[in-house]
């Protein structure tokens, strides 16, 4: 009975933490609704007045981006802003043939009168954070706009963001990511579904509630003074953007989030690239929890509400570990329930935590309808997408849990960039991309084993308990089976 008690206790604690996370999301949902009733105008610069138009530096941190450099530079060169008050830094750490082709493209743009510099380093100290820091040291701009290589800001992007810095307390203006290849495949649709949730409900909800939000590494602008005041870029975590964001807000700088300014970008079209990105984001979040949350928790000037939301913000990626724990224990829980009828009331209480799923369902519908529109047809499409998304998200839980554990226990690893493809149509092929690897990892083998484990979980529903079986967890095990199956087969076959 001791083993059963330990299993039930761990299972219940994990469900409780997921429920608390769901309640935090519900609060952000309420904040989002309330934000739409806010008509207060923020002070803005008048960019039609040259005296109010500040000098801006655009930083483009790149590393081996052979397929997207021409698209990136052509797009950035077309941004509408006074040339006399704009400089562009291409912070190029590349070690492949893209360095030479980029140099030629920059020379062509310089010949048009554009103030664009090609800045390189012999050693990638600090990775992206190190490149940004080195560029900042020689940047002339009062404000620093940053774009990753796969982002395509619109011509009026600076004119839509820079004016908000008239408020001297604003340290960052962040915009919403768009997705140029959202409909490329099921994998890109799933990624877009998740990112839309973050960029609509979470960012708006936290910003409106005066809680800490994060600069998302790209598609945003920093006040140079804010970066320096917060301690500059640091490369000791894999998410230098989240790190600097929290340090800046601990210094009482304010962030402005612009939901209505969309910055299109390319989603990874191959699961190995998506996994690489997920690993970096999830490990970096755990690293930042260890680095920053103790300081935030002790700060008497930070409200308990913000401390609560920051706890789940920085531990967002750790939810994958909780989901994995619940998933693994759910199969033995079927047998414990069947063999211990005296614990029926306990299992009724645990079943109540399924309310978390309803909260997520409501919250994700808000963001889905914001992008795709409401109506009955879209609602039924949403139901299917919600089922698919959560199945695949659970299928990523092994990969992401390992990242989280490495982050919490301080295991260091290199900053592995996400390969870019410059692909938006199924007619285009990614298979010749020189940055892809095809090694079969131990994680993939585990994912295949877990696919079979949850197939056994579904079988168990028919044989446990009474003659009628116990199908309470059957939908959960079906989602886990499909999710791990999707991730396993995509990883083995390396298909988009």
Care to describe what's here?
By secondary structure, this protein is α/β, with parallel strands linked by helices. The chain is 55% helix and 10% strand. The protein has 17 helices and seven strands. The protein has helices spanning 2-35, 69-77, 98-110, 127-138, 157-161, 186-208, 224-229, 240-250, 271-298, 304-314, 319-339, 344-351, 355-372, 376-395, 397-408, 442-463, 474-493, and strands spanning 56-62, 86-92, 116-120, 143-146, 170-179, 220-223, 254-265. A seven-stranded mixed sheet has the order 3-2-1-4-6-5-7, with helices on both faces. Helix 14 (376-395) crosses helix 17 (474-493). It is globular. The model has no long low-confidence stretch (mean pLDDT 93).
Helix and strand composition category: alpha/beta
The proportion of residues in beta strands is 5-15%
Global geometry = globular
Poorly predicted runs are none
Nearest-angstrom radius of gyration?
A: 24 Å
Instruction: Please state how the strands of the largest beta sheet are arranged side by side.
Output: 3-2-1-4-6-5-7
Describe the structure in brief.
The chain has 496 residues and is an alpha/beta fold. Helix content is 55%, strand content 10%.
